[in-house]
Design a protein that fits this description.
With 760 residues, the protein is α/β, with parallel strands linked by helices. It has 26 helices and 18 strands.
Length: 760
């Protein structure tokens, strides 16, 4: 399949979207520039190449407007399809000389295998359009009368789509005026069940509404759906070439029947038979061009169905959308305004909670000041040590006058210079899980987060902090809407990014935001609120929701490059702080043509093997390569993110512990720990103990991230780092106390500690 996809893209000379589906034939959707290839079995490579070449021809030379015109003027789709096939196949063979051999060999193979169901039948009994079709499909000894050869030659001389349409009109008129050219309809029982055919010209016409609602829609592109019912009409009415208005209406209503459910097909066919019976009883109908049908074109459809691999997995295709960052990001200014209006009104009623939380926050800031300063110094030392380790020494070519006196026994008389590697400009974007399950860990999370912010401010590292939420748009009616500009095939996102902090904020804005978030976080902590003052309710639009982590990863593909460019970042660090698996992105956006009008809808991508394409990088990922479960989609999207922004660390801080104790247990981490780290229950238990003791468990490549840091509940971590020693303690006690204090400066700040390691 990969070979066919690549061949199609190369031949089409554009980045068309190539997909593989359980469908009877190759089809090209000219509206969405999508080539849909069946999943074949028992088919030679030559025939597969033929079908691919054929559809690439439609991609290159069949415009969408052509099928609109065919429908509006009620020209036989069957006739137009045959003539258009002749035109585009000729163009393909002229453009790609190697295609000539493929067409010859493949069509000979198809004819010998009775693909057109002509074996044992008298070709002279077929109507003119069928014989033209067989002639240009390399069938030998196709008979034509002298007045018919004119049309064979005209078919080969069409250059433009309008030439094809004009010729189709003329040919239909000729066939109607010349009964000998209409032939005798072969006894091809069973052809009426075919809905789509061999390589055909697509127009996405007449998608059934019920199939869309039932998530059965597969972007049809066959131009021949109406012909199928018309073929049945001919067969059931004894070969009549005309029908009344009722049959014409039936054809329009049942086009693209290949996308409908089987019971719907049966109902429609029964209805069509009744209409046809009426037409036959009335003795005729109108002179619509739609009554001229290619039997061989329909026969090829039936043959195509037998070549499908019905056991092949179902593929669900989607692509990364272009995100409108203005729609998805809620600015710090807007968040501050929401907080101010809400909390200041609450303060007027009762200021106890306001004053209490502000006092606690100031104490936290004071306690952290020394620790942050210590870690800034440690950071500078780590940078210096790393730079020295990567330094290089070289000779300058200039004599070192201090060594000149040693010339008799020393050959190294030249001065040397030590070159230190240039330091990179680092940047941080942190995505914070704003879900309900984070409630009891929010106070600890805020304490950890504030330390990172204070550190980045001290070291002048540009940063942005976003809470990812699916609540904001739902609560803010006037702002509701999707985070993207839709294109067909785009994943549908449902996320807002709450820009809580930025390195560009003023100090007062930063302090206000910290206080508001600290009040919001304390709303769910285990405390005696009767004594300390009952907490205010949080603003509804900023309340906690579910976990649209995957949506946030998609947004990051546009957000992070923009941040890098605006801040002049050379080395990016992207951190996701979460406490559980993500919501799955369930739907994609689809665009299709119905009754000549372009419309759109949502289609599920949950069921089947997911294939996601990033149209910016051209990279594709397949869910079968990333395991099963909800985490599979997360891993796929992270893979695409890292390809979009290659020079970047993508890290996950996974808060595993919860409850009052904040301790981690077996069930919290079993799905996160890599199998290479733990192969037995006992080993897992030991890892759990280590995590609770060290306040961190490092999992390389965990869950698709470059590294995952598993943390206990952040409420478990005390931020105090004071020297605790008794009066008169000996040297050993002093040493142990000092060591404990020093270790505590980092151990109780796992986010900051591990971030420093990355940056340094």
């Amino acid at each position: 399949m990969k070979d066919l996809s690549l061949l199609a893209k190369l031949l089409a000379e554009e980045d068309i979207h190539v997909v593989h589906r359980n469908q009877p034939t190759a089809m090209f959707d000219v509206l969405n520039r999508e080539l849909s290839l069946p999943i074949w079995k028992d088919m030679s490579k030559t025939v597969q190449d033929l079908f691919t070449l054929h559809e690439v021809g439609h991609a290159l030379w069949t415009p969408l407007e052509m099928m609109k015109k065919v429908k509006e003027e009620k020209i036989s789709h069957s006739v137009v399809n045959v003539l258009e096939d002749v035109r585009i196949e000729k163009a393909v063979q002229l453009k790609y000389k190697g295609a000539v051999k493929i067409f010859n060999n493949a069509y000979n193979e198809l004819i010998n295998s009775n693909f057109f169901q002509t074996v044992g039948k008298d070709i002279s009994n077929y109507n003119l359009i069928d014989r033209i079709n067989l002639h240009y499909k390399h069938h030998t000894d196709v008979p034509f009368a002298d007045n018919e050869m004119v049309w064979v030659e005209k078919s080969n001389k069409t250059i433009t789509p309008d030439d094809v349409i004009d010729l189709a009109k003329e040919l239909v008129a000729f066939i109607k005026e010349n009964p000998e050219s209409q032939g005798k309809t072969p006894d091809d029982k069973g052809l009426e069940v075919a809905d789509m055919g061999q390589p055909s010209m697509g127009d996405n016409s007449d998608q059934d509404e019920d199939s869309v609602e039932n998530q059965e829609y597969e972007m049809p592109s066959s131009s021949d759906s109406e012909e199928t019912e018309e073929t049945s009409e001919e067969e059931k009415s004894g070969g009549s070439k005309e029908s009344d208005e009722k049959s014409e209406e039936t054809d329009e209503e049942t086009s693209c029947a290949g996308e409908e459910k089987s019971d719907e097909k049966s109902d429609e066919k029964s209805e069509t038979k009744e209409v046809n019976a009426e037409a036959a009883a009335d003795g005729g109908g109108d002179d619509s061009d739609m009554t001229i049908v290619s039997t061989t074109d329909n026969a090829s459809r039936k043959s195509s169905e037998s070549m499908l691999d019905t056991d092949a997995p179902k593929f669900e295709y989607s692509q990364i959308p272009k995100v409108d960052l203005k729609k998805v990001i809620v600015s710090t200014t807007e968040i501050l305004d929401i907080f101010k209006e809400h909390y200041l009104n609450e303060k007027k009623e009762d200021s106890v909670y306001w004053d209490k939380t502000l006092e606690e926050l100031n104490n936290t800031k004071s306690d952290s000041k020394k620790a942050v300063s210590y870690m800034v110094k440690e950071f500078e030392m780590k940078k210096s040590a790393d730079a020295y380790a990567r330094s290089t020494t070289s000779k300058t070519g200039t004599l070192d006058m201090g060594k000149l006196h040693t010339y008799k026994y020393n050959d190294d008389l030249f001065a040397k210079v030590t070159t230190l590697p240039g330091a990179k400009n680092h940047g941080l974007v942190l995505f914070l899980d704003w879900s309900g399950s984070m409630a009891h860990n929010l106070v600890g999370t805020m304490n950890q987060l504030f330390n990172i912010i204070w550190f980045c401010k001290r070291t002048q590292i540009p940063f942005e902090v976003y809470g990812f939420s699916n609540v904001f748009n739902r609560r803010m009616g006037e702002k509701s809407g999707y985070a993207q500009n839709f294109k067909s095939g785009d994943m549908v996102l449902n996320v807002s990014l709450l820009n809580f902090f930025s390195s560009k904020m003023k100090t007062q804005e930063q302090n206000d935001m910290m206080h508001y978030l600290y009040m919001l976080a304390n709303r769910w902590t285990y405390r005696n609120w009767r004594i300390e003052g009952y907490p205010y309710q949080e603003p509804a639009s900023l309340s906690l929701g579910s976990t649209p982590l995957n949506d946030a990863i998609v947004v990051a593909m546009d957000l992070i490059p923009a941040f890098k460019k605006s801040a002049g970042i050379q080395k990016m660090h992207t951190v996701f702080l979460t406490d559980g698996a993500s919501n799955e992105i369930d739907n994609k956006f689809v665009v299709y043509s119905k009754n000549g009008y372009v419309t759109n809808d949502m289609q599920s991508i949950r069921y089947g093997t997911q294939i996601i394409t990033d149209t910016i990088t051209g990279k594709k990922v397949n869910s079968k390569d990333f395991g099963i479960g909800r985490e599979s989609q997360t891993k796929m999207l992270l893979s695409l993110l890292k390809k979009r922004v290659p020079d970047m660390n993508v890290v996950n801080f996974f808060v595993a512990g919860g409850g009052r104790s904040g301790k981690v247990n077996y069930n919290d981490i079993r799905d996160v720990v890599d199998y290479s780290m733990c192969q037995s229950h006992n080993e897992m238990i030991n890892l759990v103990k280590k995590c609770n003791k060290d306040n961190v468990l490092i999992v390389p490549k965990g869950q698709g991230f470059d590294v995952t840091y598993i943390l206990p509940g952040l409420s478990k971590m005390e931020m105090s780092t004071e020297l605790d020693v008794e009066v008169g303690a000996n040297k050993g006690a002093l040493k142990r106390a000092f060591s404990k204090m020093s270790n505590g400066k980092t151990a109780n700040r796992p986010l900051l500690n591990n971030f420093i390691k990355m940056v340094a």
